[in-house]
Design a protein that fits this description.
It is a single chain. By secondary structure, the protein is α/β, with parallel strands linked by helices. The protein is built from six helices and seven strands, in the order βαβββαββαβααα. It has helices at 21-33, 68-79, 112-121, 142-146, 153-176, 178-190; strands at residues 2-6, 39-41, 44-51, 54-61, 86-92, 100-103, 128-132. The protein has a seven-stranded mixed β-sheet, with helices on both faces. The longest helix is centred in the C-terminal third of the chain and has 24 residues, at 153-176.
């Protein structure tokens, strides 16, 4: 069994903001797999399906970004899975805008949601898909940047393309694991 957790903030005011990249990718996966992500469980909305004969759970925490660890702890316990079987999808201001990178595990960096997950679980052994949002311009406050929406059509297209690639990588991970997925998807940016 595997789970994919897209980090974000619940509420209409946060829809399609940079910080809600994880939610947007879960929405894409929900459409691709034809599974609604609406059941309330583990302080999240979830959708459950099967992929390649194995159960797959899509999760959107409803605890707000800075308390994402509460949902992750609940889901690990409820579904009886290990951190290595839970893929996190997160925005990342430390990656160039539109870049998608995968890691098998790691620290939280500057991401408050990841920081809370590591704090609550005591481990950073979660595979993750990081979606680059780029650093805020000097005149922008960090919170305003991550909670802001894309200002023009070109930026929205770049974000959407990155989300589609992240969704594709997440499905590859669910079927083939992190090593093959990193080989396949991290190379795309090296070429």
């Amino acid at each position: 069994m595997r789970a994919i957790v897209g980090l974000g903030n619940p509420g209409d005011q946060y829809t399609h903001t940079r910080h809600n990249a994880g939610f947007d990718v879960i929405d894409i996966l929900s459409q691709k797999l034809d599974v609604p992500v609406k059941k309330l469980k583990c302080r999240a909305t979830v959708g459950e399906t099967f992929l390649g004969g194995e159960k797959l759970v899509l999760i959107k925490p409803q605890t707000f970004m800075n308390l994402s660890g509460l949902t992750v702890v609940d889901a690990l316990s409820w579904y009886k899975i290990e951190p290595k079987d839970m893929l996190l999808i997160v925005d990342d201001i430390d990656l160039p805008f539109g870049q998608v990178r995968l890691r098998a595990k790691g620290g939280s960096g500057t991401h408050n949601g990841l920081r809370h997950i590591v704090q609550c679980t005591g481990t950073g052994d979660f595979p993750r898909v990081r979606i680059g949002m780029g650093a805020p311009p000097p005149e922008w406050d960090l919170a305003d940047w991550v909670l802001g929406k894309f200002q023009d059509e070109a930026a929205r297209k770049t974000a959407f393309d990155a989300y589609m690639l992240a969704a594709e990588a997440a499905l590859c991970w669910a079927e083939h694991g992190i090593d093959l997925t990193m080989n396949r998807y991290n190379k795309r940016h090296a070429e």
